[in-house]
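Each field is set out underneath.
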Amino acid sequence: MKVRISGDASADEAAAIADAFSRHSGSDTVEVYVGDADEPAATHEVTDPIDDGKEPTERERELLEQIEEIESGGKEKYKERLSEQGKLFVRDRLDLWFGDGAGDDSELVFEDGKFAEFDADDVLPADGLLTGAATFEGRDLHFMANDFTVKAGSMAEKGVEKFLRMQQRALKTGQPVLYLMDSSGGRIDQQSGFFANREGIGKYYYNHSMLSGRVPQICVLYGPCIAGAAYTPVFADFTIMVRGMSAMAIASPRMVQMVTGEDIDLQELGGAEIHAKHSSSADLIAENEEHARELVAQLVTYLPDNSDEQPPRTDPTPPKYAPKGIDEVIPEDPNRAYDIREVTDRVVDRNSLFELQPDYGSEILTAFARIDGRPVGIVANQPNERAGAIFPDAAEKAAQFIWKCDAYNIPLLYLADTPGFMAGSQVEKEGILEQGKKMIYATSSATVPKQCVVLRKAYGAGIYAMSGPAYDPESTIALPSGEIAIMGPEAAINAVYANKLDAIDDPEERAQREAELREEFREEIDVRKMASDVVIDEVVPPSSLREQLERRFEFYEGIEKDLPDKKHGTVL
């Protein structure tokens, strides 16, 4: 609105008139011109609601008091136990994740279902389970969090309903889900309201299955998650446990003792170390609640919001160490150990390596990283651990990681240096064929861009599992130290020439002939011979490996791959 007033009006009078017109005209902007002036002497823009003197009623004040009581959680004696256990009250936990101290790009947007069980005879604020939406490190997501001060975070009818609604909305929005778990399981004395119902707790896991591979599901455990509650963390794509605080198990220690007679405490039964080192159910161990948040903040930088999107790129940074040192890092002796991280430190962007399940199947490294700012999933043999041979747990770990990368459009980089799958009666009992099958299946079915690099030895079916030429990588390249063979020279010479060598009586002559045969075999399996036969695409100077990978991932970024038209495979 524009208003023109007498030419003898002062600037203060013009400002007062602008303010008055703004209040009473309903116009957002009022400009007041004095006399014939071309520019306004005063401008009033409405930025705040007009205070017309009306105040909240007693009805609203009563509601605010009720909300305050709900937000205070369960009985005081249960809150006191939290501090004894080193845990935060659930709303303080949400404040850590999304509150004022969490940064400008994190905020609790809203909460749903706060009044669940408001009229219950018992003290059940929010029915012990909080759900809603939040912005975390600039990313919108759905969240749930158990309130351990309410029946030990147990699940019952109203809380289950809230959980299900949150999951179903995540399916519609295509936004990630964060589970902050601290639950003793289902509320047994109320099971008729939620256990076997069509829309009961069983639907949790149906929805987890539907969300799997659609949106990232991230779970952080803060306490005991027993029985039904323990399935949420294992269904999640990524699970973080807090050392000395978290635990999950199919049954409590008391139930275990009743059923089996075993006397065991909760940490020994299902603590963080158990699931990080033995079961593979935990991806990472946090040292405390703050560390758990930091780990998730790092994790989400590699993940898209859903399977329709590409992972977020960042500004590139140089690697930690100069790539020119790669060839010196890799020993000439194919049997000598070294740490594969000495290679990745010269290939990926500085400080971008984010390893998952470091304590499980450590013969293979699985990690997110960035190359030129682009997220990639790394599957690398670790010669420092049992010569980099692929054991059952390492194969299982790799298969799961490959599957997740493919689900969320994260390109894969295989760094091969392995004598192949481990042999022996023990690994057969542990399912080396079954787990190896899963790794090969995941590699075969992945439709994201794949790059295979033969660093040194790639023997036996190891070259298959590591996405060798037959497994549709966009490139198979090798360093000059690379070898590809059914087996290593020592084993091959023994298999083929054992009788002829045994027939040589002179030990020196026998040793000389064995060395000659080994050298002849090495020439056959050298990657230059493989490149000459066009088995692999290229042999590259080690100092150029990072640049090669930058260019190849960029060139193949938009590649399209189709799987055969079928319902699904039969490998799980």
